C-alpha cells in the first residue's frame, strides 16, 4: 500500500496525505472486492442441485449436470448487481466451475460460508479448544488474499455513506448503526451468518435473538460505540452474550467533521484497526476483546467491528471536575477490571499514573520486539494490511530545498492566532510565560523552522529501519483496560487499534504518552525511554527522545489550527468566567468526545516542552543531523519566514 507524503494533517496521528483522492471506479464494485471467499449451495435439495451455466449471462449455455445441494465452492468473481457467482468446486458434485445465481425469486440458492481449514491439525495438549479455534481462524485469515485499501475522497464518502455495500473481508452486506443491527433486515439471522463466515461461531450453532443493551456508551473520538445482547441456540462459556460494536460516527451536524476526518484524512485507519483483530488476535502478546466479526466497505467507508464487551467492575461516570484529585482511590479485588478511563484525566486512575503509563509503554515495546522477531507472520502480509513506513521509498517523502511543510505565511497566521488565545482568551489554562514576547517568538521560530523541514523530519525518523516499530499507534489509558493480578501487579488488555502498523518508535511513544500530565511525563520520561529497549536492535535513547519531541511539535501544527474548533466547542463569550481546566465547559466530554479537553491539555504540554525541555535547541540539533544525513546544506532562512 503506497502513500505519498505531501504534508501534515490536522490533529490526528497521521502525518501524511494521499497525493490523489480520485474516486474508486464505481463499476469496479459490480465485482466482489473480496478474494478467498467460499459459498455453500443451500438450494436445489428437491431437484438434485442447482442449475449451472457457462457464462454470467442468464441465457448462456447450460452446463451438464447440476451443482449439488450442500456443495462448497470457492468464489472466482461475484457480480453484486445481478447476483451471479462464478465458482470453482471444492466439495460436492457437479460442474467443476461455472456460473450460478445465488437466489431466484427471493429463494436463496447459495450462501457465503467460512473458508475450510487446510489441515486437520489437533490442538496442542496445553491449549484450550476455544483458544485453538482462534489460532486456526487467524492462520486461515492470513492465507486469504483480501484486497488492499484504495484511497477515497470526501465526495465519495458524502455520496455513498448511506449505501449498503459488501464488505472487503467477507463480502457480506453489513449494518453500521445500532438501529440497523437490531432491525429485521439484519438481526439474529445476519449475525449468525456473519459469525459463521468469520469463523467465530461453530456451524452447528446460531444466534437466536439480538437485543439492545440499556447501558449507553457516550465517549469515543474516532467512532460510535454501543452494546447489545445476544442469545445462542447452544450457550457456551466460550461464547459471550454481551457484545460491543464500534461503528463510524453518524453523518450528522455534531459529528460530520469527525466522520470525514477519520474516513478521509486518517484513512485507512479503520482498515488497519479491523485487521488487527481479524489477523492478529492469536499472536498479540496482550489480551484483546474476543473478535466476532468485522468488515469495511472501500466504496462507502462504512464499517463495523463486533467483539466481546469488557466487563468493567465499576463503569460509573468519571470525575471530570477533578474533585478526587489527590484522594485515595478504592482498590479493586485481583482480576477485577478498572475503568473505563478517559484521556487527560490521570487523577481518575486508581494507582500512580506512572505505573499505568509504564505498563502501556512496556506493552507497546513488547509488540515491537516480537514483530522484529517475525512473531506476527510474514512481513509482506503485514505491509499489505497495516501501515508500513518501512517500505516507503525515498521519493515518497517529498523532500525539497524549499519549505516542505505548510505555506509559511499560512502557518504563521495560525501560530499567531493560537498565541493570542493562549496569552489572552484562554490564559487561565496556560503557563504565565505564554504571555511573554520571548516565549512567543521562541515558539513561532521553532515551529516555522520545523515546518520548513516537515518532510525531512518524517524521512529522518524513518531512515534507520532499526527505529521502525510494528506496534499499536495510540496506546492511551482510554484504549486499554487494566486489572491487578494476585501479586498486585498492574496488567492490561488493549483495544482501539486504529492505524496499527510500522512507524518510528519515537513517534509511537509520543502518541502513547501525549495525554500524560506534563509534570509526571517530565519526571518519568527517561524511565519510559529505557523501557523501549524491546529486545530488537540496540536503540539510542537520545535518538528516541528527539523523535518523541519532534513528533510533539508536529502535533502542534494541527493544534494551532484548532482555535476555531475550540471556540465552536466552548464559545468565546464563556471564557471570561472559566477559572480552571476542571470547569465542565472545557473539562467535560463535549458531544461525547474528549476533543476539547485534549486540545487544551496537549497545547499546554507542548508549550512546556518548548520552554522547559528547550525544544528549540532540539530542532536546531535535528537540522544539523538531517542536513548531514542528506549530504546537502541547510535550508535558506526564507523557507522559515512568512
Main attributes?
alpha+beta, five-stranded antiparallel beta sheet
Task: Offer a concise description of the structure.
This is Aminoglycoside phosphotransferase domain-containing protein. By secondary structure, the chain is an alpha+beta fold.
Commentary on this structure:
The structure is a single chain. This protein is α+β, with helices and mostly antiparallel strands. 34% of the residues lie in helices and 13% in strands. The strands form five sheets. A five-stranded antiparallel β-sheet has the order 4-3-2-1-7. A five-stranded antiparallel β-sheet has the order 8-9-10-12-11, with helices on both faces. The protein has a three-stranded mixed β-sheet with strand order 13-17-14. Strand 5 and strand 6 form a beta hairpin. Helix 7 runs antiparallel to helix 12, helix 9 runs antiparallel to helix 10 and helix 12 (505-513) crosses helix 14 (541-559). It is globular, with a radius of gyration of 26 Å. The two termini are 35 Å apart. This is Aminoglycoside phosphotransferase domain-containing protein.
Largest sheet report: 5 strands, antiparallel
Q: Strand share of the residues?
A: 5-15%
The general outline is: globular
Which structural class should the secondary elements be placed in?
alpha+beta
Give the rounded overall mean pLDDT.
90
Number of strands: 17
Strand order of the largest sheet: 4-3-2-1-7
Low-confidence stretches at least 5 residues in length (pLDDT < 50)? 1-33
How many individual helices?
Answer: 18
Protein name: Aminoglycoside phosphotransferase domain-containing protein
